[in-house]
Amino acid sequence: MIFTVGISHRTAPVEVREQLAFSTAELPDALRHLSDELGGAIILSTCSRTELYITIPSDKVGSVDGLVSLLAKSKGLNEALDPLRFYVLHDQEAVRHLHRVAAGIDSMVLGEAQILGQVREALAQAQHAHAAHPLLARLFRSAISSGRRARSETNIGRYAVSVSSTAVALAKRTLKKLSDRTVLIVSAGESGKLAAKSLLDSGASNIIVTNRTYAKARELAAKLGGEAVPFNKLGEAVAAADIVISATESEGFVLNYEDVQSVTAERKGRPLLLIDIAVPRDIDPRVREVTSVHLYDIDDLQKVADTNMQQRAHEVHKVEAIIDEEIGRFNDWWRSLEVLPTIAALRQQAETSRRAELERTLKRLDLTPEEQRRIEAMTSAIVKKILHKPISHLKTNGNGHHYSEAVRALFELKDV
Fold it and tell me: Which candidate in 47, 124, 321, 406 is catalytic?
């Protein structure tokens, strides 16, 4: 049976989840420990979840408390964890859960892209540690296929829903293309950095950073490969930029109406996109009245994100259909495993009988070596044709277990 024991954003706050978050450096030892205990395991650990996937007989699973303790022990925790924070799924529940996770529809942010790479990395880590049971490896590959198809065949990941991705979407919508665009960050905080990095990744080529503390501006500019300018040169920096992201903690406006109006004269009609993600706001809302200037504040970004989240939600049923297809293929393969011993025994019995009869017949005939090879090939082909349909039926029929028992009884098969 396949079992999953996990904790996620749906069951526990971050202060609980972070206790079980495995770093890349911690995974090899944890996986080896779990593999020794269980014969194989895969750990999926992200900022929003930690899940352990195992495959063992149901009578050896033990209690939820035991599974939670085993996971905690592999992390090196000595303190007891509340088992009520955890979920335990088995077989089809576990299979569907992982497929939904990989497709991004069980995430904090619906349709997030990062989770697919994290599922792929979890499998790679387990394989590197020689802890990936073949059944679990096949399950993860199936889930990864669902995730890839969800992103290529639906729009589940198309619409921006984070501050940084929404900033990119607005920039593309306003400026059409981002290549060779200059981005100015007013602040050296995390929000501005993430938005600027997303714009860089999307084609923007130049970064300017300014901050009231020049040292902080230089530090962030170095990380982003950009240029730092003193805060008293803000007007000149705005004049040179195409996109301005402001995220300071100032109590008053950093850019007022008059500042922006005077700057536009130097720009000769070039459009200017201002993205104000500060609370309180950094940019005077009257700036919207200035020609060729486009201003969006945090509420504007949230409205776009909310609308886009609704668009993503409309895609969920398409993703679920893809998941159903991939799970169907996985289940066909999984069911075939239980009949493989019967198939092997049936083939061996047929082959043993064929060879015995062939040897008896060839002894009574005076045939050349070439004629003997032809008889050999013909009898082998006959046996394969006779067994083809029964074997195919055993592999693909949903009641393969029952058919397997019937075949074993009818042919008095023995294990090989």
Answer: 47
